[in-house]
Amino acid sequence: MSTIEYLQIYSDSDGCSHFRTVAVELEANDYAPPAMPLNTSTPEPAEASLFLELPVGWFGDWHPTPVRQWLILMAGECEFSAGDGDTCRRQAGDVVMLDDVTGKGHCTRVIGDAPVRMAAIHFS
User: Fold this and answer.
1) What pTM did the predictor assign?
2) CATH number, residue 37
3) Could you give the residue ranges of the DSSP H alpha helices within 17-82?
């Protein structure tokens, strides 16, 4: 069985944010017949999707995510800081689940000389 891993940023019961790596299991499915089966995760309903661009030098000080959402990095590199003091860099091709809708939240900083472009998928 295949898996895909992503970084989850979540808040604990005290409102402090943390990182954890989550693995999603993929199973063979007839996703696009008549094409051959391919590996998929379990579908989850989404509410909205949009593209984001964080310009060079952008810094988002402590904030909870405005909505539970996937961030799929398409270009650039950024650093996330959690309330527990951990930091984590992510770059194009990485996936992040923002789940810290309560508490202090996290910080986000663009690293390097290129803007960060992302696709965001909001959950209801």
Assistant:
1) 0.92
2) 2.60.120.10
3) none
